[in-house]
Amino acid sequence: MHPHQCELIKLKNLGAASVNILNSIGIRTYADLQRIGAVDAYLTVRNRGINASRVLLYALQGALLDVHWNQLEPDLKAQLVADVERGERSQQSA
């Protein structure tokens, strides 16, 4: 395993499959994920044609906050979904 993968795999919610997906879109470190953010990372994954559920979105945010995705506040989950939907709309109109 690449050293950067070791860094990501240590984050909450991220397993080998998630780390491989993140690597495929250029996210190799916690700093990369933090810079890009959960919403833009998720949108990039979806734009690559990778089938990703909202659980990945929540998992990415949870990894950034060091909490299990299932413990994210409902309001935060709703905000993440709203941000994704806004991002998808702006991509469609571009």
From TrEMBL:
Residues 7-82 form the TfoX C-terminal domain. It holds the Pfam family TfoX_C. This is TfoX/Sxy family protein. It comes from Biformimicrobium ophioploci.
